[in-house]
Amino acid sequence: MCKWCAKHGANGKWYLNAKNYLEETSKGYDDSREYLEVLWGNLERIYLGKTWGMSINNVISYRLKIPIIGRMIKWMVNKRIEKEKNPNPRIAEGHFGQVIPLEEAKIIASNLADVKIKANCPCRYIHRGIKVDNCMGFTALAEVFPKLPRLIPENGLEILSSDKAEIFLERMNQEGKVHVIYWGPIPYIAALCSCDYPQCLGLRTRMDFDINTVYKGEYIAVVDPNKCIGCGECVSRCQFGAINFGSSINRPIIDAKRCFGCGLCKEVCEEQAIHLVDRDEIPVIRGMY
What we know:
Elements (H helix, E strand, L loop, with lengths): L2 H6 L14 H4 L5 H10 L1 H6 L1 E2 L2 E2 L2 H7 L2 H15 L15 E4 L1 H11 L3 E4 L2 H7 L6 E4 H6 L13 E2 L2 H13 L3 E6 L5 E7 L5 H9 L4 E2 L3 E5 L9 H5 L5 E4 L4 E4 L9 H5 L5 E5 L11
Parallel strand pairs: 3-9
Antiparallel strand pairs: 1-2, 3-7, 4-5, 4-6, 5-8, 7-8, 10-13, 11-12
């Protein structure tokens, strides 16, 4: 399990710990709603302007490629992203996520999060100027959404029942979206977003700069060669470049080091030839989140 599961997971995954969704947990920090309002209200400035005193553009991309300087920058940025005490929302401290599969997203929507509100995705608005209601906010964040007009869908904010939330997640899965659960502030869990690369700011920062805005999931995908018929549907489904098709063996090959464990390939396989296994069961990637 990742270090956050050990610290906030109550002997399980951090995002499946019911305590992390409670109203009392969101009040564990002073002005937690102010934190959420400032964070979600300033994502454009945080990701497209200056963050941690540096611009997220070609300059920082170049610096991150310099061996020693790049490691120092990543260490500093990751430390601030993962800050638990007195996080500064204006530079996204205490706000990062982890990829989860559909099954666990449904557990959260059905059994763990009391209040679920569907809202517009800030990432798509930032990148393309469009409003698409692909995000789900919980309890404290749900109270903040009405103060952020750009996050309000055209038909208004919708409070979702558990059944509607599951249907919503299934639709996002069919559309090829990756489910990402987000802290904010730690240990309160504020949102479950349906993301895709490169539009998602969290996934884009992780994929392009290898900064821990989004952790890899607790699983990786594995192919059962006895069930696979070589249709190749799973290859185009992967957003992380983790699946290649081996023409000589007529089946997909999954790169464990690139796999985020989202399960999209698993869901699209009609032969049920792909399943998810615990990441730490594979020695070569144990602890690589």
